[in-house]
């Protein structure tokens, strides 16, 4: 979900050669980590250059909303068209809109990209927003993806609902109706809502004079998927619980959990209306991972958690990585943290981004680290979570 065609190279990029184990942390690197603010970049020469031992984990599919994403085509090249159209059932729905105005023939023109829901039931539909994130259209895809996740995590359920009569369609996000989307600008909307009637969701590109509901009445062409981006359709997984298989001990040295690589963490699957084949969501964008890792310190060391752009050298689309997570309390307070928080992206080793530092229990007892993660749009994948024992004395 960034510059065109990088996802076609993603699976090849993640199959890096194993290499050797990571080196022990040097005293000067410990000092550098301890001086670093949460979310800031810290340079860790020689530590992140080679394969780090894996922490094995299980993924448990948890109850969650119906999940729809519009990201194929990512760049909408026709002036008017439908980039996603899928039925939804009463209940919770998560929708991720990630599309770019790609019209350049015969000329670059401003467009509207919007999402609408039509009531296909027999009674009035009530729609109430649970999570809401809507970014201003921008060509700064990294910032849009990073801020979009931060706003999603921070949003609260709305109290009021809107009513849709049978056969009527309304805009899911009124802000998208107001936006002017210029050539090469990304529209990024991330929503979770509840409905009480069956419906149909459409993501539409149209002209600035036509509302989304009016465009739905006249536009009939559904843009064929190209299979080069994250994907589109309705997917069978929206929430994971990720649990480390065993208790991690700081005496075991530096280890990592790798997410969103397509191998250890396979892509979720679903379907696209009118097509018999299985749809794959390359990148698992919009899927929520609730991560739990139990740990202890039998050697009295603390634990630093960092991430880095592990695929920066694999292809031209991995020049930067930006992310947002929710992390449990440690040296820094718990909550939402943008990664990095002191600049737009992290580029390559030796750069790492400090997520949190955890202190050992006074009696060396067991503790639990909790993270909420979702693969960030526009950013390079996979996401390594590197756990580094550090001497806090």
Description:
The chain has helices at residues 10-14, 27-35, 141-154, 174-178, 212-218, and strands at residues 41-43, 57-62, 66-71, 75-76, 81-88, 91-101, 112-119, 125-134, 162-164, 169-171, 186-195, 199-206, 231-235, 239-244, 248-249, 255-259, 269-271, 279-280, 288-296, 302-307, 323-327, 335-339, 351-358, 367-373, 383-390. It has two domains: 21-63 and 237-390, no CATH class; 73-224, no CATH class. The chain is mainly beta and 393 residues long. It contains five helices and 25 strands. 10% of the residues lie in helices and 38% in strands. Strands 3, 4, 6, 8, 9, 11, 13, 17 and 18 form a nine-stranded mixed beta sheet that branches. Strands 2, 14, 15, 19, 21, 22 and 24 form a seven-stranded mixed beta sheet that branches. Mean pLDDT is 92; it is low at 2-23.
Q: Quick gist of this model?
A:
Keywords: Signal. The protein is mainly β.
Can you tell me the residue ranges where pLDDT is under 50 for at least 5 consecutive residues?
Answer: 2-23
Q: Any idea how many domains?
A: 2
Strand share of the residues?
35-45%
Radius of gyration: 22 Å
Question: What is the helical fraction, as a range of percent?
Answer: 10-25%
Mean pLDDT figure: 92
Helix and strand pattern: HHEEEEEEEEHEEHEEHEEEEEEEEEEEEE
Most strands sheet? 9 strands, mixed
Instruction: Classify the secondary structure makeup into a structural class.
Output: mainly beta
Number of helices: 5
- What is the overall shape? elongated
């Amino acid at each position: 979900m960034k510059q065109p065609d990088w996802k076609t190279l993603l699976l090849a990029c993640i199959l890096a050669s194993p290499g050797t184990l990571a080196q022990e942390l040097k005293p000067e690197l410990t000092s550098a980590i301890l001086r670093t603010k949460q979310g800031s970049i810290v340079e860790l020469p020689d530590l992140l250059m080679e394969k780090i031992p894996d922490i094995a984990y299980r993924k448990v599919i948890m109850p969650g909303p119906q999940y729809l994403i519009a990201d194929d085509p990512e760049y909408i090249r026709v002036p008017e068209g439908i980039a996603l159209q899928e039925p939804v059932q009463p209940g919770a729905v998560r929708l991720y809109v990630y599309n770019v105005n790609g019209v350049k023939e015969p000329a670059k023109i401003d467009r509207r990209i919007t999402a609408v829901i039509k009531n296909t039931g027999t009674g009035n539909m009530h729609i109430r927003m649970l999570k809401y994130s809507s970014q201003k259209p921008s060509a700064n895809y990294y910032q849009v993806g990073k801020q979009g996740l931060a706003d999603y995590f921070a949003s609260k359920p709305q109290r009021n609902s809107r009513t849709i009569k049978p056969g009527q369609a309304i805009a899911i996000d009124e802000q998208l109706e107001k936006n002017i989307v210029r050539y090469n600008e990304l529209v990024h909307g991330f929503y979770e809502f509840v409905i009480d009637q069956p419906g149909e969701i459409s993501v539409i590109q149209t002209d600035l004079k036509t509302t989304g509901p009016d465009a739905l009445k006249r536009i009939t062409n559904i843009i064929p998927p190209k299979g080069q981006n994250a994907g589109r359709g309705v997917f069978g997984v929206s929430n994971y619980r990720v649990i480390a298989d065993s208790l991690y001990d700081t005496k075991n040295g530096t280890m990592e959990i790798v997410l969103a690589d397509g191998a250890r963490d396979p892509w979720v699957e679903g379907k696209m209306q009118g097509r018999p084949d299985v749809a794959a969501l390359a990148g698992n964008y919009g899927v929520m991972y609730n991560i739990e890792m139990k740990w202890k310190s039998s050697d009295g060391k603390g634990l630093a958690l960092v991430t880095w752009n592990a695929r920066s050298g694999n292809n031209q689309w991995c020049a930067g990585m930006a992310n947002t997570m929710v992390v449990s309390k440690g040296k820094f307070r718990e909550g939402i943290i943008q990664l990095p928080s002191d600049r737009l992206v992290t580029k390559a080793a030796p750069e790492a981004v400090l997520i949190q530092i955890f202190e050992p229990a006074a009696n060396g007892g067991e503790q639990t680290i909790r993270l909420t993660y979702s693969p960030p749009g526009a950013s390079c994948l996979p996401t390594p979570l590197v756990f580094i024992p550090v001497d806090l004395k």
